[in-house]
Amino acid sequence: MEQNESADSGVMKSAYSPYNKLEKVDPSSMRWTTGFWAEKFDLCQKIIIPSMRRAMDIPENTAVFKNFYIAAGLEDGNHMGTDWSDGDCYKWLEAVAHVYSVNSDKELDRIMDELIEVIGKAQDADGYLSTQIQLTNKGRWQSIRHHELYNMGHLLTAACVHHRVTSKDSFLNIAKKLGDYLYTVFQPRPVQLAHYGFNPSNIMGLVDLYRATGDRRYLDLAGIFVDMRGSGAGGSDQNQDHVPLRRETEAVGHAVTATYLYCGAADVYAETGEKRLLEVLERIWNDVITHRMYITGGVGALHQGTSERGDPVHEAFGLKYQLPNATAYNETCANIGNAMWNWRMLKITGEAKYADVMEKVLYNSMLSAVSIDGKHFFYTNPLRWYGSAHHLLGADALSRWYTFMCYCCPPNVARSIARLHEWAYSLSTEGVWVNLYGGNSLETKLADGSPLKLTQETHYPWHGQITITIQEITNKAYGVMLRIPAWADGAEIKINGEAAGVKAEAGTYAAIEREWSSGDTIELMLPMEVRLLKAHPKVEEARSQVAIMRGPVIYCLESVDLPDGIGVAEVHIPRNIGLTPRYDQNLLGGVTVLEGEARHTRGGEWDGKLYRNIDNDSIEPVRITLIPYYAWANRGISEMTVWMPLC
Ligand SMILES: [Zn+2]
User: Fold this and answer.
1) What is the pLDDT of residues 287-302, one digit of tens each?
2) Cys bridge to 47: 179, 374, 409, 551, which one at CB 3.0-4.6 A?
């Protein structure tokens, strides 16, 4: 297996996966410069990561680093937090490594070294490492709910990222020892372990370890974990364990474990090219997109419920078209898992529809989890909220929190923002692919080894104008593939100020193939009209309602923006409403709001009634200001809705 060293950076490039059409760029070759994602990356490195580290030292928080120090014999105490605390700590470390790949901050390097040393000391001699087992009398491999493979999977991934961005072996050696241990336990496929594991980050982690080391056993083991799913009697849809993955026809069960399984299977496909795996992933993806995904890209409609096959499920995909708003679960980790899965499908196929879903999650149901100040988080991401009167289910909260009884989501947000610069561009033998828009500079090598340097300038997602300037390229024909989002009907492309003569079809990559020169500019104009969207009529909870979108951003109405006494559920949107965008730099970290005149119903008090005659209703005008959905719940506890009745 090849391990490609990037000559200019010394950072190991992710080894080529034979069945990926697109490869990612070296992490050190791209950086956000100005605009939306530059600001979010900056927030991540300056606020989110240090603030989260402090939260992970607080004993009431359920992800705490102290467990490693205790397991290493460096401190006294008992295990604290959840069974999955270790995994959440590794996700934070992974986020740090991604940030380090951009800023090369020596202090971050030192922090990682220190923690990795402790983690190494906590590892058992045979390679096993999971502090909730080592520090208790639970015993190894006694229950899938103990999350051993979840923790270990995140260790493997974090270690491989650390190795890739630092070239150090310290963490990777721990990962190899763990991978070798797992191989001895699971490669023989013991019957009593047929249903392991619960949350399969281990599959992604093992493929990462294979890519970092070239040791084929890790890939084989990843394949075994895919094959084990649904292979024994007694499995449940809750855990995608009722039917073998290759025979599955729909997305079922816990939405985090589901999306992580699909990610892992996509990783295995990228290495093995097994057609049946790709076929089932496409089948399940179509089911998600046509039946089970929210307009925000959120997945996991149910707190509790039943699968189509009748298994009890929780934190799970709903039945077809079952997409409730106020009780939507939409765990942040599941939404991120959806984006991660689509990123993998994009790399395999080069199809823009996957990048569209990825972007939808990033701007909407991923960012909705973190407060504008970068310190507080949501676990669930509902689409309607009834303020302090909202009935709280499961992991719902009235406002974003600093510490929590299940801390899996915050470090997932951190690592997602921190690694986004790796998702913005891809490379293939055809040239360079532009997946995400935002001010940045890229300095990389094309597939033939020739240098490419470009910059991108834009105020996207608030404006639709994107300018790419080629800074350096060798005089040879290369393709520049620009993603035209599915909503962008009427997009236009100019080269050096003149119409490019290239079809910019919505929902595709527009391929511009030519011999480029340094200084060439590409302008992409995406139409940014406000759009009113409706749901399939079988989505009962969105019936006769509209959601409002501009560019990739879903908007919502918050009661803080309404006159006193009017609830968000009483506001109706006229079909011909005029909504005017206005950028407000001082609001919610800088957002474009939409302003216009809607209607609200008044009269006919409810007086405890459940139903009433409509005769007494009066319809009156009301000025509304819509904000991006991701920015809700940053101005105190308020009511919020994404879907609004049409009038
Ligand atoms: Zn989570």
Assistant:
1) 999 999 999 999 999 9
2) 374
